[in-house]
Specification:
442 residues; alpha/beta; 4-stranded antiparallel sheet; globular; Malonyl_transacylase_ACP-bd; EC 2.3.1.39; transferase; Acyl_transferase_dom; acyltransferase
């Protein structure tokens, strides 16, 4: 497999000499050029195409055909990345775009969520009914800033979207399947239903509920997953919801996430999880590391089944919050860009599948590792851009895709935009890899 650089090598940053720096095995098919493409500037409503300075800029080369660039995936984070003050840098850097979006967020959720994000305290922001809409809304705010301030277009620059658990709602918004207003409302109702399900389990059955990450060596992971499924009695897709009918919450524990080749997350009753971990250590002959996560609910466990019904009812209803879409189906089909489902680790195949899998997602295992492997190995995605608070998603992606493409960046690259200061690096990285393509060689 050989990397080819098609077209002139270009730099984003102005006033630098263009150079061609392909990695080992890469071929530059044209000599270095002194032309450059300036880094996309923030849009200014007062600017005009007749501006003298604009006329003096060198003309941009014709855009390359879509298929000549590396395939690109956009991904969004899940719960746990929330941080007090995470909106402040965006409001300071881009007030014209950010302030109206923040006002819209508060209007949709019906209270000043922006105050909770800005001032906390952390214990309030970490509550599921606040954390989930806060993370999802912040992710979309960052995306909207990229679109409005820098002209970033998902349908032109991205081939796939995906999101980790909660992040799937932002992914579906970014790829045109659900409008932001409807999606944020769904996230709020989902979070409330999940928190309520946990509260009812605690009141009726007692016990403590939460999530524990299990970190093991990659060679042991498949054996570990099989042992856990045997121990808890769920071994097939759909087994969670079926078996939940016959078990009390105090007995329920499931694999919530398969995050990477060496990490899974268990969800459910904490004492039951401790028993399971002790069982694994005794009978498998190795000692996986167990880390309690900061979660107030056992997400993706059978305890979450009531939330599935709430989501089904909303998704089977009609849009009521989007001007011009009143009474229309809440899910648009087709979308602008294929989106990968957490449940199947494959792209959604129909409007009905979006509704079913998105509703079931809060109960079923998040197949994150499978999703990344599918895009990396089968779809040959080579550029990955994370959008939203925190860098957990970027680290998980980087673990799987390894070094490929640019020398200094995993996967040709794996980037994350969590702060305004990172925008320039990401846009430059995308531009520098725009003409890197892989061709099979005999």
């Amino acid at each position: 497999m050989t990397l080819l650089l098609r077209g002139p090598c270009r730099l984003l940053a102005p006033h630098r000499h263009a150079t061609c720096r392909p990695r080992a095995g890469a071929v530059c098919t044209s000599p270095p050029s002194s032309r450059f493409i300036p880094l996309p500037q923030r849009r200014n409503a007062s600017s005009s195409s007749t501006d003298n300075n604009a006329q003096q800029q060198p003309p941009s080369p014709s855009p390359a055909p879509r298929r000549t660039r590396p395939k690109t995936a956009l991904f969004f984070p899940g719960q746990g990345v929330q941080k007090v003050g995470m909106l402040a840098p965006w409001l300071e850097a881009f007030p014209t775009t950010a302030v109206p979006i923040v006002e819209e967020i508060d209007h949709i959720v019906g209270y000043r969520l922006s105050d909770v994000i800005a001032n906390g305290p952390s214990k309030d922001l970490n509550l599921t009914p606040n954390a989930q809409p806060a993370i999802m809304a912040t992710s979309i705010l960052i995306l909207r800033i990229l679109e409005k301030e820098f002209g970033f277009k998902v349908d032109e620059r991205v081939d796939f979207t995906l999101g980790h658990s909660l992040g799937e709602f932002a992914a579906l918004v970014s790829s045109g399947y659900i409008e932001f207003e409807d999606s944020l409302h769904m996230v709020q109702k989902r979070a409330e239903a999940m928190a309520d399900a946990t509260r009812k389990a605690e009141e009726e059955y007692g016990g403590e509920y939460g999530m524990v990450a299990i970190v093991s060596e990659p060679p042991h992971m498949q054996q570990l997953i099989a042992a856990i499924e045997e121990f808890v009695g769920y071994g097939s897709e759909g087994g969670k919801s079926e078996s939940a009918e016959n078990r009390s919450p105090i007995e329920q524990v499931l694999i919530a996430n398969v995050n990477s080749k060496n990490q899974i997350v268990l969800s459910g009753n904490i004492e039951r999880i401790k028993t399971l971990v002790a069982h694994v250590r005794q009978f498998l002959g190795h000692d996986p590391r167990a880390v309690r996560l900061k979660s107030d609910s056992p997400f993706h466990s059978p305890i979450m089944k009531p939330a599935v019904g709430v989501m089904h009812r909303i998704l089977n209803g009609r849009s009521r919050r989007v001007r011009g879409r009143e009474g229309e189906d809440i899910v648009s089909w087709p979308g602008l860009v294929p989106c990968v489902s957490n449940v199947t680790a494959r792209v959604f195949g129909s409007r009905e599948e979006v509704k079913d899998l998105l509703a079931r997602q809060c109960l079923e295992t998040v197949q994150w590792w499978g999703s990344i492997k599918y895009l990396d190995q089968e779809e040959k995605v080579r550029r990955w851009v994370g959008i939203g608070p925190g860098k957990v998603g970027r680290n998980l992606v980087g673990k799987e895709v390894g070094m490929r493409g640019k020398d200094a960046v995993k996967g040709g690259g794996v980037w994350a935009i969590t702060d305004p200061s990172e925008i320039e690096e990401v846009l430059r990285g995308l531009e520098e890899t725009e003409n890197l393509v892989e061709e099979e060689t005999e």
